[in-house]
Design a protein that fits this description.
With 196 residues, this protein is an alpha/beta fold. It contains nine helices and six strands. Helix 2 runs parallel beside helix 3, helix 3 crosses helix 4 and helix 6 packs parallel to helix 8.
Length: 196
């Protein structure tokens, strides 16, 4: 049986796993975590509620330099509610390592969100519209995440965000690890996955 200890996660991340009461990894976690730790790009199909956030959060937050004071992980989610939920879970899993998480979405102050990023966030969880707005206007300085996660990609398709996603990728560094998670795999998502 695969255990969280068997993955080789950072000890502070494992401590958070125990504190969160996770007993054994879900199927998506068993398949995704080792590949993410190896630095592979992945496309994962998994339903909501199967532990996707931990499937990308545990290995990515184990890999980064928590003291670097720059954004290393970008997670793009379709809605403000999901962005808040993912951000809260990543904060809980990463706080023992001192990983700071910032959520960026519309309807909130630009300056406050930018200031929180500039204060040394390691993880940014963002909705496509607000993120693209900030990138186009050059408001996020030195924004070069090394790991980019698209969460609920099929919902982004349903909400008409695929063009925004492609534009967001035009601002990202050439060298990066890309992780795409989706409950379903319609053709446009498969094409996006090939492209990015």
């Amino acid at each position: 049986m695969t255990t969280f200890e068997s993955f080789g996660l950072h000890e502070d991340i494992l401590k958070a796993v125990k504190e969160a009461g996770f007993k054994e990894p879900s199927p998506v976690q068993v398949q995704a975590i080792p590949l993410v730790l190896q630095g592979c790009d992945i496309v994962a199909q998994a339903q909501t509620g199967t532990g996707k956030t931990a499937a990308f959060g545990l290995p990515t937050m184990s890999k980064i330099d928590a003291k670097s004071n720059k954004v290393e992980i970008l997670v793009v989610t379709p809605t403000r509610e999901l962005a808040t939920q993912v951000s809260d879970e990543l904060y809980t899993l990463g706080r023992n390592r001192g990983i700071r998480t910032v959520t960026i979405y519309g309807g909130n102050s630009y300056s406050r969100q930018i200031s929180l990023v500039e204060k040394g966030a390691s993880v940014v969880v963002a909705t496509p519209g607000r993120l693209l707005d900030l990138l186009k206007n050059g408001r996020l300085k030195n924004f070069q995440p090394s790991i980019i996660v698209l969460d609920e990609a099929d919902e982004m398709l349903d909400m008409g965000f695929l063009d925004d996603i492609e534009q967001i990728f035009s601002y990202m560094p050439q060298e990066k690890q890309t992780l795409l998670f989706s409950a379903t795999m319609p053709e446009p998502i498969k094409r996006l996955a090939k492209k990015i």
